[in-house]
Amino acid sequence: MSDSRNSKATICVEGNIGCGKTTMLEMFQEQVPYGVEVLTEPVSKWQNVRGHNTLGLMYEDPARWSFAFQSYLQLTMLQNHTCPTKQPLKLMERSLFSARHVFVENLYRSNKMSDAEYAIINEWFDWIFVNLNLNVDQIIYLRTSPQKCYERIKKRCRNEENCIPLEYLQQIHDLHEEWLIEGSKLNPNSNIIVVDADQSLEQMEEIYFKDDAKILNYDHLIKVQS
Ligand code: TTP
Ligand code: MG
């Protein structure tokens, strides 16, 4: 099987809904003086699958639609993971891993996804993981409080997300912590950079501007890949 990893190094940006992933990626696209190729999350694809808004359907009736939605979302994540890039760094919004370890896990634990659906999604995920070389070299975790995300989501008004309660954001937060903080204690070799992203947009901009190479771990990644 051919190597599906075409860029020199891949960084995935993770964190709760509304934590500021897209904003960060857009800033890095404009500011970083060296080669970074940014792939933002394909939310618009989920909103229009041959005329169907699957993100909307999932929020309206998760027990009915979450399996279909997460299946399609997994495909679009795979497309980003395997998308060839010219620049030395590929910077992706999210990954197959957060879809699996956070969202699918949460749907299953909250009884919105059945045992059989969960098993099928996991069969796909495990096959992809074993058979395609999706190496992620670095994860940047934008760590926020669920309350802050709640406020930002209300402000940005993405239609499908009108009914997201704080409780849901708490669950998604807890699973990020389980995966990226608790999980990294079990695996000390994991490359996770944690950024306190509860601050204002201006403060975040300043941090990204000042510490871009450190946050991207740029020197280390380029050295490892060359
Ligand atoms: P996010 O992937 O968190 O992206 P975002 O654009 O909301 O985040 P940011 O503001 O930090 O850029 O979520 C996008 C939407 O998709 C959100 O409503 C949650 C939903 N979603 C799922 O339901 N399942 C998934 O597996 C993923 C990745 C997202
Ligand atoms: Mg986004």
Brief write-up:
This protein is α/β, with parallel strands linked by helices and 226 residues long. The chain has eleven helices and five strands.
Task: Write a concise keyword list for the protein shown above.
226 residues; alpha/beta; Rossmann fold; five-stranded parallel β-sheet; 11 helices; 58% helix; disordered N terminus; binds thymidine-5'-triphosphate; binds magnesium ion
The CATH topology name reads: Rossmann fold
Task: Give the ordered list of helices and strands.
Answer: EHEHHHEHHEHHEHHH
- In DSSP terms (H or I, runs of 4 or more residues), the helix count works out at 11
Q: What is the mean pLDDT?
A: 90
Instruction: Assign an overall shape.
Output: globular
Provide the gyration radius in Å. 17 Å
Bound molecules: thymidine-5'-triphosphate, magnesium ion
How widely separated are the two ends? 23 Å
